[in-house]
């Protein structure tokens, strides 16, 4: 069973603050790491998919880094805005067999970091 | 609209009953995933189908079953329902069976068992 840990569980920041969250995962058999943003009453929306150690991805004010050797990923938000308020989820796929065959599609999600940006 | 359609959006049923949740993947996506989110739990993987075949299985109860049809839509069947099965059930799709691309999630079906 993969253990994907996210910290902190929740975060309150003021508009304009920069913030970052951590996703920790087992480094063995790494295949891919995903980040999703999940706004209340909506469905999770993909932000980034990272597969290589040292990957850095950026989308507007949000960026992410990946360290597969030590098993962590950081998500950064620069100049937080109230519309950034959401739950941020990371999810991991590991290499390896699965009953009935090999699957690299199964994503194991962390519990998420709830971000609230106050105006 | 994400392109993944889930029906119904809400479902209220009694214990012991059977329900079917339906998912139509985004156009062009071959893989469908089912996830369950119970109270205070994260998204729990149930099962994955790729082009009609089961590809991976998670913590899916024996009372639950799923399939993917030739037109690629998928159904999740939940039987002998218990109060603890009350949850938000998400379907997601992706173009291939591997996690090289982000998944597109539907808006979910909220199941309440009374």
Give an overview of the whole structure.
The complex is a heterodimer of chains A (119) and B (114). Chain A is built from no helices and 13 strands. Chain A has 119 residues and is mostly beta strands. In chain A, strand 6 and strand 7 form a beta hairpin. Chain A is globular, with a radius of gyration of 14 Å. Chain B contains no helices and 11 strands. In chain B, strand 5 (44-50) and strand 6 form a beta hairpin. Chain B is an all-beta fold. The A-B interface holds A 31-32, 34, 36, 42-49, 51, 89, 91, 93, 98-101, 103-112 and B 2, 4, 31, 33, 35, 42-45, 48, 50, 54-58, 90, 92, 94, 96-108.
Keyphrases for this structure?
heterodimer; A: 119 residues; mainly beta; six-stranded mixed beta sheet; five-stranded antiparallel beta sheet; B: 114 residues; globular
**Greatest contact pair?**
A-B, 30 and 32 residues
Overall pLDDT confidence of chain B: 94
Tally of helical segments of chain A: 0
Main beta sheet of chain A, described? 6 strands, mixed
Low-confidence stretches of chain B: none
First and last CA, distance of chain A: 40 Å
Report the order of strands and helices of chain A: EEEEEEEEEEEEE
- The percentage of residues in β strands of chain A lies in over 45%
Helical amount among residues of chain A, as a percent range?
under 10%
Counting DSSP E segments of at least 2 residues, the number of strands of chain B comes to: 11
Shape of chain A: globular
Radius of gyration of chain B: 13 Å
Mean pLDDT of chain A: 91
Could you state the order of secondary-structure elements of chain B as H and E?
EEEEEEEEEEE
How much helical structure, as a percent, in the residues of chain B?
Answer: under 10%
User: What is the alpha-carbon Rg of chain A in Å?
Assistant: 14 Å
Structural class computed from helices and strand pairing of chain B: mainly beta
Low-confidence stretches of chain A: 98-102
Structural class of chain A: mainly beta
């Amino acid at each position: 069973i993969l253990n994907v840990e996210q910290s902190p569980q929740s975060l309150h920041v003021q508009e304009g603050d920069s913030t970052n969250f951590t996703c920790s995962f087992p480094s063995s058999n790494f295949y891919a790491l995903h980040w999703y943003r999940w706004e209340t009453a909506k469905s999770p929306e993909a932000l980034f998919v990272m597969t290589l150690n040292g990957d850095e991805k950026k989308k507007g004010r949000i960026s992410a880094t990946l360290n597969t050797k030590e098993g962590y990923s950081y998500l950064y938000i620069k100049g937080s805005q109230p519309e950034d308020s959401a739950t941020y989820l990371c999810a991991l796929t590991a290499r390896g067999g699965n009953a009935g065959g090999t699957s690299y599609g199964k994503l194991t999600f962390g519990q998420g970091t709830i971000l609230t940006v106050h105006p | 609209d994400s392109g993944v359609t889930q029906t119904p959006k809400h479902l209220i049923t009694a214990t012991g009953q059977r329900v079917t949740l339906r998912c139509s993947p985004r156009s062009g996506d071959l893989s469908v995933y089912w996830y369950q989110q119970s109270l205070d739990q994260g998204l729990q993987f149930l099962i994955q189908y790729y082009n009609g075949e089961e590809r991976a299985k998670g913590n899916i109860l024996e009372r639950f079953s799923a399939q993917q049809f030739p037109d690629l839509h998928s159904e999740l069947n939940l039987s002998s329902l218990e109060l603890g099965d009350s949850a938000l059930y998400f379907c997601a799709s992706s173009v291939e069976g591997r996690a090289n691309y982000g998944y597109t999630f539907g808006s979910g079906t909220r199941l309440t068992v009374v």
